[in-house]
Amino acid sequence: VLKKMSQKDEKTGLVIQQSKPEKMRKFDNTFPFDVNNPQIKQDIVRMMIQYLEQEGFLASMLTLQDEANIKLKQNRVHLEQMKRLKNAIIEGDWETTESIITRGSLKNNRNLHYAIYKQQYLEMIDNQEFQKAFIHLNKKLKPLESVAVEGEFKDLSYLLTCKSMNDGGAMFSSWQGPMVAREKLVEQISSLWNCDSHNDEETEVKDIPQGRLISLLQQAVGYQILESSHHPTVKPEVQTLLCDYECSVIPNSCRWTLNGHTSNVKCVCFTDAQGRFVCTGSSDNTVRLWETETGKQISILGSHNSRIWDLSSNNSGTILASASADSTIKLWSLSDTSIPSEDISIHKNDVYSVCFHPSGKHIASGGYDGTVKLTDIRTKQVIKTFFSGQEHSIPHVVFNPHGNLIISGCKDGTVRFWDVLSGVCVKSISGNMGEITSVQTSPDGTILLSSSKDSANRLWDLRTSKLLRRLKSHQNISKHFIRSTFCLDAKVVAGGSEDGNIYLWETETGKVIGTLQGHNETVFDVRWNSRLSLLASSSQDSTAKIWWFDPEFSV
Fold this sequence. Notes:
The chain has helices at residues 9-12, 38-54, 58-91, 94-101, 110-126, 130-141, 152-158, 178-192, 212-227, and strands spanning 253-258, 265-270, 277-282, 286-291, 297-303, 308-313, 319-324, 329-333, 342-344, 351-356, 362-367, 371-376, 382-387, 396-399, 405-409, 414-419, 425-430, 436-441, 447-452, 456-461, 466-471, 484-487, 492-495, 502-506, 512-516, 523-529, 534-539, 544-548. The protein is of the alpha+beta class.
């Protein structure tokens, strides 16, 4: 139930109506054209030239135009050259053929040379010109022996001892005469060296419609809006083309309750950007995998020997890492859940947090022993250990978006920034905060969100390290690790609370714009999926929930 929703939301575009889908849409990443098609490439360059001219970048436009004209001229010369070559081969004009392949772009094409010289050699054998064939074999084919199929040069040499081509063995038994062989060679050249093109002959150059590049980009964004799960009632304002369109919609009701754990659920995460699956970790020591679309449990991946504090998956959603109170990190295969987990034992006590590097090759972890560690998941070896000199536990660690910094939240109320290469703490933030329970950066890396045990979430400007605003109203004062997350491209913050609610704050004002009720006890963790506009939560009540925007729900 949505307890409270600010009237400002509709003005800012945060609450948007949708057509309710029976099933969540699945994105089709196939493309309707070949990106390597020469005509498509030429069209793209021409549209870029048009746009640069319209925007007044005349110097850049002229430079690109000159480069494109040179390349187009080279392509036309190459196509004309290949056309002459094919005609010469069909006519058996080997003198012209030789002059073509020893000049220009074909001069260093050893495979082409070998195929043509082999054809000439076979015709000499067929005409029983053995002395001429012997000279040709040693002068032309022998230097190209390295590009021949293994054993082929030996078979070609053997033909000199045969009375006819049919006596040369299985390789030459299909010989049907020079003309058939020449036609096959031309087909081979056409397929292997791409000399067939609709540009063989001059074609009419079509005019580019005015503003064509912008028109295509608008169509692309329009398609993304159409394919999104939630359809706006007002025309959305797209602020950037550097990422896919995301519908600004705030969850207002529970879509699924994930029942199955026998103890409190400490953590939850979506396995990838597509949001196809949700993983949960519990004090019942198990990691469970759920289908987002149906809320059904797919698998119990396995178990630790103690409670599970945190979960993280790589960007592709193929590997899941779990951090546990049994002092281990386990790596689980999500592409094949039958594969046993791999253990990483690098901490002395509870491992409170784990996070994948954006590259997916390393993980950062922090725990009760007060250290932050960077580990190679392939070798399972620690690359660097980061230690502040004080033995305060590390409840949470994350990477910044660029992956060059590890950000750690510490029990002493300090947020530290560790340089991955040097291992040095390059910055720290503290300001009369309680024990830090979670940290996260905005997608652009300019704002830090921290949660702490003084019942406050804080937003920090990472360029100046200054506090922007406090987010209050929730409860976070006891021994639990209660975490928060950015939603809607950092326009909104969602966070758990000891009163069993999920609070939603507007980052620009710091005001509470919504409260999601449904859990019966403390909400520990919340995670956002931008592709589906879904929020996942985990709780002391032994359940996890998936929250969505229900258009039929009346505020």
